[in-house]
């Protein structure tokens, strides 16, 4: 039997108290020894009935509850006229105040309430010897007295939301509950965006700490630590593996180092660490390019000290780096790789570094290419490179990679690198957010053991087409593209995948020919005469290059369509609709027929179309003129195979002409190794499109 009483009012908020009747007595329901201050949830009731105890231990609060509370609080603070950029400070102050332990008197006037909260903040920061940061966390009443009551109301309602989340019991759970809520609020409660934070997804900070196998003997550094996500993950990893409390305390004190340029964000990082029972870490405010770390000792224990300048005889102390440097903006002097280089300068030789970087750093020419060639590979060993899900930082759209480096050992050209492409990481998009889902595939788990082997430089063979491969760097590549998309094997598309793609190509081509009024085109006659036939032959494949199949591979000749007069010749661009046609123009030369075009640029490079009609092309389109022995069905088949490789390219990685020599096209062959046109014809004939379009 349960009973719940509720007391309070609209001004001061409400509080609930519940009891459970067992063994002839009413017992107060607690969670981690704190009274439950919200209405009981179904899960809490189930736990009590299951244990027949009014004391709930280490009860898990799920992420959806955190998210809902974060959104509620954000709305409350908005209604209280508290600016977005100020909300992270408010929530930090209230959480620290609640963490102090005693109850807050909500009946006092606004100025006394704020003074009480700030006093508690002071007390907590002094306890952790971080009182210098109090000025970045303390909150102030609005300048206008007219808004004092409104502000107080927002504070009370926010505290009420936190109490309903049973925040005090969460603090004592021994788990990362409070820090998790804090990060969710910063990410989704309009806190992070407004103060310039791009939070590294929590599952990735945790994953990287596991891969680097961080332990209590490491010195971990993040030169651009933001709110401390990587450092929190490092601490959690040590807590998980080490059972010696003294060593854990020593790691908290001497093993965690972070620099953040914005003092307000440093304060958030400190709060984040305090919520995990640690405030003695070495997170400082400053510019990582103006700070140096030097190995020292304290009572025989190795530690790192910050220096304002480099000095002769400095010993770099750091063993592991986890970092997500600021992504370079136009006009900024420092590039992402400058931060990586700076971090490496703080590390011991053989130390391990993990960095999240925009794909362009390991892809672009110019300064980025020079850095890869002249600095990275000449001084350090690349262990692994991972392409992350394109939605990793959703709703921010940026393609990112993960780079694993061993410091101080020049890259051996024969050394294998583990390349992987992670399309799904266990999260799904929902209403502007990414949420963990048990229904979503997590490919990070698929590569975890292989990645650990790679970081340990254990030799192994691994090859899963389009997913991962263990393979040495191609130093003959003039662009020196260090991304998985340039190294992963294509594999062979299944018959059903190929048939589906051919079916799609034919339907779109048919639609284009009709809408462009090419009624007499010979390809329409093929459609009319063709019928669908089943296919069930065994197939042997062989890999061909573009030059094996096409007598002419080059770009189009027209740059700007606006310079052309209107006419009848379709001009093919990088559009992905209307068979790539940008418009119709008066063109007399550089006209092609019965060719494939490949988009080299724009949003969907590698998009390929078959053109059984006269056309011209822009100079960001590659024209492939088939050898004479290729019939139209073979061209359709090849077009489908080209489209199956769109995954290799993106807005950041274009399919320019200089990359076409690496394109591999698997085709059916006979016992002599020659293209088997009979098999190709039968595969194409099995498409349902032929029967569907016969009646048109």
TrEMBL record:
Gene3D superfamilies, sorted: DNA methylase specificity domains (3.90.220.20), Vaccinia Virus protein VP39 (3.40.50.150)
EC top class, as a word: transferase
Entry keyword set: DNA-binding, Hydrolase, Methyltransferase, Restriction system, S-adenosyl-L-methionine, Transferase
Listed GO biological process terms: DNA restriction-modification system; methylation
Chemical reaction(s) catalysed: a 2'-deoxyadenosine in DNA + S-adenosyl-L-methionine = an N(6)-methyl-2'-deoxyadenosine in DNA + S-adenosyl-L-homocysteine + H(+)
Entry EC no(s): 2.1.1.72
InterPro entries xrefs: DNA_Adenine_Mtase, DNA_methylase_A-5, Restrct_endonuc_typeI_TRD_sf, SAM-dependent_MTases_sf
Alphabetized GO MF terms: DNA binding; hydrolase activity; N-methyltransferase activity; site-specific DNA-methyltransferase (adenine-specific) activity
Domain spans labelled DNA methylase adenine-specific: 175-438
Family: Belongs to the N(4)/N(6)-methyltransferase family.
The name this protein goes by in its record: site-specific DNA-methyltransferase (adenine-specific)
Organism (species): Candidatus Ordinivivax streblomastigis
